[in-house]
Every structure is written in structure tokens, then in C-alpha cells.
Amino acid sequence: MFMLLGSLVDLILPLKDDFTIDQAILRKLVRLHFAAFTDGVLLSHAITELRYLTPQQREEVIRTVAEELASRLPLIVETTGPKLETTLDLSLEAQLLGADACLIAPHKGLAVTDLYDYFIEIARQIAIPIVLHDVQGSKLTPNIIAKLIRIGNIVGILEESSDLIRAQKIEKLIPEHVGVYAGDDASAMEFVFYGAQGAVSATANVAPKAMFDLCKASLTQDRLTAEKKNLRLFPLYEQLDTGSPVAIKCALHMMGLIASEASFLGNKLTEENKDRLKQSLKLAGML
User: Fold this and answer.
1) Mind listing the pLDDT tens digit for each residue in 257-267?
2) 0.90 surpassed by pTM
3) In this structure, what CATH number is given to the domain that contains residue 142?
């Protein structure tokens, strides 16, 4: 049974200044997560910038990370497309390239009445597990999630909301073998304390061991340790958990872990925001 526990990193994609993929640094970043005991890797549309890649680049990234992980850590790839056919194509590609699971949200415009048939068709055509991506406006109410979980291939939910009451409702409606994962860094500790199995974190790019320790303490109900870790990381959450890789890349560049801050988004942090980020890194013990 596919079950993830602990800290998963929403991995950034290192680019060279000419916007080609920096393969050597990508491999180095994956290896750093082994050393920090990260429990799994997500390649997402936003942080990994998958949505901006050509089909060839996307294949290159997934293949490289899968090869480097070599099944030692689970790899989840976001495969949500603008329609069912695209989602199926992306999911089958991820499966072929070595992903262990797909992260899928309902595409925009999909009616609530069509959600079950949508996921049934995906589960019928791909062999690897599915993790539901519950993003704002996805129409995935706790009751709908409970219904979808009956599809055997759906094994988890990445919950982007910071609503603990909603998370608890979901936990009560789903079987124990299905995981709920926090997608909001600032509320991850409390999510895990109240029953979630782990967190998918942007902050784990910069502080992987600290996020691992936080999740471990939360999973074992060691509140004193978890709160100590969380307090130290809290200044970073606001800077890094923005749904964009820009600040994360700036932080990793400050730490000397990547050669270029290049992003497909093109925007850079202001000097004021860089100073704030640097201070947060120092408070977290990362500089």
C-alpha cells in the first residue's frame, strides 16, 4: 500500500541563466535531500515550474529526478491538465518515466457531477497511485473526497487550505490507509498534530532537515520539540510559501546551493525583500 509519512519537498528546478535546466545542480539538490532525510519529492506545476517547460524539458526533469531517487524515495509528479485527455497523457508519461504517484486536481470548468467519472477514468488508465490536489476552487468538499477515495487507486489528499476544521472533517471520513498532507507550511505542524500524515513544503527546499525534524516531532506528538522547530522556521514560511519559486531560488543562491536565480517567471526580489529573506535565513540558522 502506498503511504507517505513525514516531510516532502516541493522541489525547485535549477535553471542556468539561458533558462536551460542545470542538470548537475538538480542532481545535487536531490542528493541533499537524501542527506537531510526528506521523506519524498514532489514535482509541481508551480514550484518546479513544470507548466513552463517544453515536453522535452518536462521529460528530462522527471527522468533525471526519478533516476537520482532510484526508488529510494517516492516521487510524485503533478499531472493536472486543462482537460481529461491532457491529464491522462501527462499521467501516463509520469508513470513511464518512473514516478511513484500523480498529483491531480480537477481541471477548471469540471462540474461537480462529473468529478467521480473524471477520476474513475484516470484511475482506470494509469497503474500508479493518485494523490488528490485540493486547491482553492477545486470543488472537492470533504464528502466528495470521501466518495472519490472509494476509487481504489486514490491514496491521498494534498490539502492546500490552512483550515484545520476542514482537515479534521476529511480525516474522519476517509479510511486509515489514505493520507492527508498539509500544503500550507505555516499550518503544517498543527495539521500533522491533528491527524495529517505529513506536509508538502516549499520551505523544505531551504531547510530540509528542519522540516523533517518538525514533521517527525509532530507525528510522534512531541509538541515541545515541534513548537521549538516551528518557531524557528516561521519567519521563512511567509517568505517562501508563496506559490512561486522566486524567493526559494534567491534563498538557495544566498546559501551557495544554486548558481543562478533564473526563473521562467522572470521577476526578481526587491532589495528590501532580499534583506528580509536573508534575515529570516539567519534566524532559521541557514546562513
Assistant:
1) 999 999 998 87
2) yes
3) 3.20.20.70
